Please model this.
Amino acid sequence: MTIFKHPIIEHIPSLRRYARALLGGRAEDADDLVQDTLERAYAKWHLWNVGAKLRPWLFSIMHNLFINQVVLLKNRAAHVSLDDAMELSVIANPGARLEAMELVHAVSRLPESSRTVLLLVTLEDFSYADTAKILDIPIGTVMSRLARARQQLRNMLSDTPQVELKVMK
Model:
């Protein structure tokens, strides 16, 4: 199988999108994570079950690499490349740009466990079952982390914090 016809190739755009969202838009770190994911996938290709879905397997690899590298990435100095700065300046509507930046900032402030579930389900459109498999957690944990993440985002983005009501029994 030649590299240009490899089934992994079609998943690169979604891997890049998820990596950028996961890393708060840091394009260079995201590209490094995608490259590491692809290298690991090619090295471990013999472990992929031919009948299984390829996309969740790739995202599992990326998640595990992210967890392993998160400490290293936090210690690196943050910077924006000129290409990224040019992309940001193209947005014509400053109000929409501000809202988008607030959303990205709010998502980046979520705890890592909630952020990964939120991004996999909403941005990458994985099912709860696939998300549970990727993160190696129970499906109920996926549902509760997603609910908490959404509530935290609502609280961060609203003018008046919303209080979660709990029923006492």
